[in-house]
Amino acid sequence: MNVADQPEEPDRPDRLDGPVKGRHERSVRPGRRERRHQETRDDILRVARQIVIESGAEQLTVREIARRADFAPSALYRYFEGGRPEILLAIAKTSVAVLEGHLARVPRGLPPGERIVAMGEAYLRFAREHPEEVTLLFDSLTAMEPLDLAHPDESFLAPTGVYRLLESALREGIADGTFRIAERDLMFVMHGTWALVHGLASVERLHEQHGGVFDDRGRDLIRAFVNGLGSAWDAGSRRHAT
After folding, report:
1. Domain boundary assignment for the chain
2. CB 40 within 8 A of CB 4
3. What span, in angstroms and rounded, lies between the C-alpha atoms of 45 and 50?
4. What is the 3-state secondary structure (H, E, C) of the chain?
5. Measured over all CA atoms, what is the biggest interatomic distance in the chain, rounded to whole angstroms?
6. Which member of 172, 190, 205, 215 has the lowest number of beta carbons within 10 Å of its beta carbon?
7. pLDDT tens for residues 105-149?
8. 80: how many CB neighbours lie within 10 A of its CB?
9. Considering the entire predicted model, what is its pTM?
């Protein structure tokens, strides 16, 4: 039986040697409950992640999670009040954290262009070493309804750790003349960079499935893209000129 279905134990003070115990009780009780609450949330997420890996995020429902976790469906809302959208969000944030760990290993002292190339290579390694996290991240996003995303958690749709590293390199490159990017196009370039490396990761996976070898071509394509940011490129003016 899942821990969430077990009757809650009455709060009891820890055994103390002296007579003073009231303040100690108040400080210990919330910590024990919070730990148990977090452990149950983690159990629910493990079940939800497995469902997404096996069947895709479209098949994720509160009822199916509750069935596998041996919950009553109504009890699950005690741990995820927002239900399915909140669970999908939590799944994606976990995968983003794994990605951020890979990108954080890129040396900060590299020149801006080389740093972005290294970040792209780090993403390709992330996709190779954690293909399930890539699936969980993007399946969770695409399975959410537009209304679910009306007021999203910004750390999910715009993962601050990932974008902060990329934006820092781009702004440094703009400042030293490496890149020629208008301020209004900065976010567009950030999204485009992510789209490029994610697409390359998908192509690499396809090559591997058919016995091909990707070698260093992914890195070379990322470098070609980054080099292009140093040309007279301005998406805004080009769009208005047509």
Report:
1. 1-81, 88-242
2. yes
3. 8
4. CCHHHCCCCCCCCCCCCCCCCHHHHHHHHHHHHHHHHHHHHHHHHHHHHHHHHHHCHHHCCHHHHHHHHCCCHHHHCCCCCCCHHHHHHHHHHHHHHHHHHHHCCCCCCCCHHHHHHHHHHHHHHHHHHCHHHHHHHHHHHHHCCHHHHCCCCHHHHCCHHHHHHHHHHHHHHHHCCCCCCCHHHHHHHHHHHHHHHHHHHHHHHHHHHCCCCCCCHHHHHHHHHHHHCCCCCCHHHHHHHC
5. 83
6. 215
7. 899 899 999 999 999 999 998 988 888 888 888 787 777 665 454
8. 20
9. 0.70
Asked whether this chain's domains 1-81 and 88-242 adopt the same fold, the reply is no
**Residue labelled with tokens 């969980």:** 136
d(C-alpha 196, C-alpha 198), whole Å: 6
> What is 1-81's CATH number?
1.10.10.60
Q: Count of residues for the chain?
A: 242
Specify the CATH architecture of the domain 88-242.
Answer: Orthogonal Bundle (1.10)
Residue 117 and residue 223 in contact, taking contact as beta carbons nearer than 8 Å: yes
Q: How far is CA 162 from CA 38, 44, 142, 153, 165, in A?
A: 26, 26, 19, 15, 6
Joined tokens for residue 223: 């470098």
**Cα Rg of the chain (Å, integer):** 23
| Residue where the block lists tokens 């070379």 | 220
Angle at 208 between CA 203 and CA 209, to 5 degrees: 95
Half-sphere exposure of 114 (CA within 13 A, CB side): 5
